[in-house]
Amino acid sequence: MSDFKLLINGHLVDGDSVMDVINPATEEPVAQCARASKAQLDQAVAAAKAAFPAWAATPIDERRKALITMADVIQANIADLARLLTQEQGKPLEAAMGEVFGAAAFFRYFASLDLPAKVVQDTADAKVEIRRKPLGVIGAIVPWNFPMILMAFKVPAALLAGNTIVLKPAATTPLTTLRFAALVKDLLPPGVLNVIADANDLGAEITKHPDIRKISFTGSTETGKRVMAGAADALKRVTLELGGNDAAIVMGDVDPVLTAPKIFAAAFQNSGQVCIAAKRVYVHESIYDAMCDELAKLADAAVLGDGLEQGTQFGPLQNKAQFDKVLGYIEAGRRDGKVIAGGARQGDKGYFIRPTIVRDITDGSKLVDEEQFGPVLPVIRYSDASDAVTRANASDYGLGGSIWAKDSDKAWDLAAGMESGTVWINKHADLQPHLPFGGAKFSGLGSELGEEGLVEFTQVQVLNMAR
Ligand code: NAD
Question: Which of 174, 337, 368, 401 could bond 358 through an S-S bridge, CB–CB 3.0 to 4.6 Å?
Answer without folding.
Answer: 337
